[in-house]
């Protein structure tokens, strides 16, 4: 029988799969007890868009899929209007026909990595999934609180940083994180903050107390998936121990990785887009995630979404028109073409007229723009990012997902 089974595996290898179990990984914890009606999950994250971080365990996908709410340290999306995470802007070259090109395949660096990483950094990916999947989101801290905490903490002056040593430390922390070793992460943070008395307490311990208070309240209402920096989990004053002291049961969830995706992983990874519908304008738009929406000017609506890991931005402005300007006039206003190129007129498959081209303005820098209008509204779409983004078809792909119903 065993021999027959072995032959079967050789003939049909695609019907088998392996499961890799990593018992020492301590990034995911199940929370129960203390009167909870549903289980919740606590996950240790790392604020980076490094692709290695996104090889999430099947148990993590299970927890994400089953939870009714997603909880993070702060509302990252609220930073969209103020924060372009690119560390540099792109300079485009143009051929003799005005077509942009680049002589470099270099990826643009961002606050959270570079263009070779994932579009969002890990925490922002969780928030993106939350909205795309129609779940509820809660922050444990306000962005203002985080800014004030870090502003008040005694930390090294960046002007005196040894960047080579800092890179070595960053690489070491990444290796430790990928192993799921939260104890070593806590230890290395203590050591590196020890020259600055009080900074560990301000940046870690005090915030742990506040985050546990918020978690205690939220978990009593629904089952949730909470992701916080992995450095907050371990130690006597870490979130795990603080929750246990309040009567909760915390169990490490074993990290397992199947070659064949489980159903929960498929569902999470299929939640890739957010559909925006404006009935008043008659506009349908597909973003990578939920955009920030705000009213500006005289009845204008502005939508903004950023992929903060790679530094890409997508925006749409809806502007009421009075009929005195043609679409060509609007293109002249909204597309500031560099001298070496000019925008172009196109007719879409549904007969919608558009103008599209490269624009160069402050603060966006070089960016792609498309304008179109119906009898009541002008739509101005923009897309920009790093070197690779600006020389790809991604701006055009975004524009193609915006249309009048």
Approximate shape: globular
| Oligomeric state of the chains in view | single chain
User: Which structural class matches the secondary elements?
Assistant: alpha+beta
Low-confidence stretches: 1-17
* Total DSSP E strands: 22
Radius of gyration of CA atoms, rounded to a whole number = 24 Å
Described by strand count, sense and barrel closure, the largest sheet is: 7 strands, antiparallel
State the helicity in percent bands: 25-40%
Descriptive account of the structure:
The chain has two domains: 14-269, no CATH class; 273-404, Mog1/PsbP, alpha/beta/alpha sandwich (Protein Transport Mog1p, Chain A), CATH 3.40.1000.10. It has twelve helices and 22 strands. It has helices at 2-11, 58-66, 122-132, 143-152, 163-178, 182-193, 199-219, 239-245, 263-270, 327-334, 387-390, 394-400, and strands spanning 19-22, 28-32, 40-45, 69-72, 93-94, 100-101, 109-110, 113-114, 136-139, 224-229, 249-252, 255-258, 274-278, 283-287, 292-296, 300-307, 312-320, 344-347, 353-361, 365-373, 377-384, 402-404. Strand 18 and strand 19 (353-361) form a beta hairpin.
């Amino acid at each position: 029988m065993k021999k027959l089974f072995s032959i079967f595996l050789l003939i049909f290898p695609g019907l088998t799969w392996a499961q890799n179990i990593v018992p020492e990984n301590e990034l995911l914890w199940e929370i129960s007890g203390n009167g909870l009606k549903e289980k919740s999950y606590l996950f240790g994250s790392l604020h980076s868009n490094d692709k290695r971080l996104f090889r999430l365990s099947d148990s993590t996908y299970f927890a994400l899929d089953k939870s009714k709410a997603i909880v993070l340290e702060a509302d990252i999306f609220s930073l969209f209007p103020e924060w372009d995470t690119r560390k540099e802007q792109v300079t485009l070259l143009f051929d003799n026909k005005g077509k942009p090109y680049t002589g470099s395949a270099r990826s643009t660096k961002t606050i959270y990595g570079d263009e070779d990483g994932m579009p969002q950094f890990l925490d922002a990916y969780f928030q993106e999934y939350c909205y795309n999947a129609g779940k509820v989101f809660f922050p444990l801290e306000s962005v203002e609180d985080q800014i004030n905490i870090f502003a008040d903490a005694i930390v090294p002056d960046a002007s005196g940083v040894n960047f080579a040593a800092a890179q070595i430390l960053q690489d070491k922390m990444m290796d430790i994180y990928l192993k799921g070793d939260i104890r070593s992460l806590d230890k290395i943070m203590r050591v590196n903050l020890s020259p600055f008395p009080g900074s560990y307490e301000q940046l870690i311990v005090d915030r742990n107390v506040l985050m546990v208070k918020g978690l205690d309240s939220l978990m009593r209402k629904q089952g949730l998936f909470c992701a916080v920096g992995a450095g907050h989990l371990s130690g006597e004053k870490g979130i795990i121990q603080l929750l246990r002291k309040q009567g909760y049961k915390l169990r490490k969830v074993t990290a397992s990785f199947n070659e064949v995706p489980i159903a929960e992983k498929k569902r999470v990874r299929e939640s890739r887009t957010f559909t925006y519908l404006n009935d008043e304008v008659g506009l349908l738009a597909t973003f990578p995630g939920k955009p920030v929406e705000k009213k500006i000017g005289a009845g204008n609506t502005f939508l903004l979404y950023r992929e903060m890991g790679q530094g890409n931005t997508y925006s749409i402005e809806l502007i009421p028109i009075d009929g005195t300007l043609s679409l060509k006039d609007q293109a002249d206003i909204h597309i500031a073409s560099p001298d070496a190129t000019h925008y172009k007129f196109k007719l879409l498959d549904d007969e919608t007229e558009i103008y599209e081209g490269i624009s160069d303005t402050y603060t966006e820098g070089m960016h792609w723009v498309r304008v179109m209008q119906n009898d009541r509204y002008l739509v101005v779409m923009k897309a920009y990012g790093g070197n690779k983004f600006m020389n790809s078809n991604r701006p055009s792909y975004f524009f193609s997902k915006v249309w009048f119903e």
